[in-house]
Specification:
It comes from Algibacter agarivorans. This is M28 family metallopeptidase. InterPro entries: EF_Hand_1_Ca_BS, M28_fam, Peptidase_M28. The chain has a single domain, classed as Zn peptidases (Aminopeptidase), CATH 3.40.630. α3 crosses α6, α4 packs parallel to α6 and α6 packs across α11. α9 links the parallel β6 and β7. It has an 8-stranded mixed β-sheet, with helices on both faces. It has 336 residues and is of the alpha/beta class. 39% of the residues lie in helices and 15% in strands.
């Protein structure tokens, strides 16, 4: 009887250990990593990126070259690799492609985190790195909101995904952080990526989240004091993407989503006026995040001191959460 008792206890112990080992690992909490996105870090980066030293970041000009080096150095420091070749973060675009006088060779900047389960499926998070340069009266157009805000947002989102990876929570799908040049002269950097040299096949690209001006408040929303974003394109190719976006917002933030500019009859035609369009035209679902225009749009007065950094932090966290859901859901969002 004594031996039977020992055998019974051993069996229970083994079964218990085996059961414990077979329990599925608790899924990662994205809020932990979203909180690494902070207003202070966004502000520190933007005060550099939208400073006079960058001379308005006009495509192909010395200030734009400083901008791409700034972005690259951030990824190198963070240990986020390039999908091109080791150490080479620049997708070179020859001046002939721009076909505009005075525009020199330029480059997109690419970095990525490889997915753990579906590495060939890609989520692209994009923003344009260029601006309009120096005005005729030698005033520098710093472009803090347009699109310094989108640029630094991507850098913070990339750091959040990297923090998750270090903690053992790699995204299931790959994330491409795509900083495009030539937006201000015709969406040419994103067009080059999509039409000439897609580093990842477009058929494998699940969605594009495009960030262009998310640091300010437009006149329509000033009185309410409530954080908001204009969303454009979320339902045009995939109702599933639109619903996912809505669900993420309701679960974590409850921002006001304004779809005014998503109207097919919107006279501003913003759906066609930022880099997401070069993905949408290739049947890739998109969301364009936008705070609307303001009095400082395309003027030297678009400076970093006018950014609402608390709003920028929350908006950036929202986009991170949306990318997290896209990257980690079981099935890629369907194109309608």
């Amino acid at each position: 009887m004594k031996n039977l008792a020992i055998l019974f206890c051993a069996t229970v112990l083994i079964t218990s250990c085996s059961s414990s080992q077979n329990k599925p690992e608790k899924s990662a909490d994205p809020e932990i990593y979203a909180k690494t996105i902070t207003a202070s870090e966004l502000k520190d980066m933007l005060y550099t990126y939208a400073s006079n030293d960058f001379e308005g970041r006009k495509t192909g000009q010395p200030g734009q070259k400083k901008a791409v080096e700034f972005i690259k150095s951030h990824y190198v420091t963070a240990g986020i690799v390039s999908p091109i070749t080791a150490g080479d973060y620049f997708q070179e675009i020859p001046a002939s492609y721009f076909n505009k006088s005075g525009i020199e060779d330029s480059e997109n900047v690419l970095a990525y985190i490889k997915g753990s389960e579906k590495p060939d499926e890609i989520i692209i998070i994009s923003a344009h790195l260029d601006h309009i340069g120096i005005s005729g009266n030698d005033d520098i157009n710093n472009g803090a909101d347009d699109d310094g805000s989108g640029t630094v947002a991507i850098l913070e989102i990339a750091e959040a995904f990297k923090a998750a990876k270090k903690a053992g929570h790699n995204p299931k799908r790959s994330i491409l952080f795509l900083h495009v040049t030539g937006e201000e002269i015709g969406l040419l950097g994103s067009r080059y990526y999509a039409d000439v040299d897609p580093v990842f096949p477009l058929k494998n690209t699940v969605a594009n989240l495009n960030i262009d001006m998310i640091g300010r408040v437009d006149p329509k929303h000033e009185a309410s004091g409530k954080n908001y974003l204009y969303l454009i394109g979320s339902d045009k190719l995939s109702k599933e993407l639109h619903n996912l976006s809505e669900d993420v917002n309701k679960e974590y933030f409850n921002l006001e989503f304004d779809y005014t500019y998503n109207d097919d009859n919107d006279p501003n035609r913003f759906y066609y006026r930022s880099d997401h369009y070069n993905f949408a035209k290739n049947n890739i679902p998109v969301i364009f995040y936008f705070n609307g225009t303001h009095a400082d749009y395309h003027k030297p007065s678009d400076t970093p001191d006018k950014i609402n950094y608390e709003f920028l932090e929350t908006r950036t966290r929202l986009i991170f959460h949306t990318a997290w859901e896209l990257a980690n859901r079981d099935e890629r969002v369907k194109v309608d």
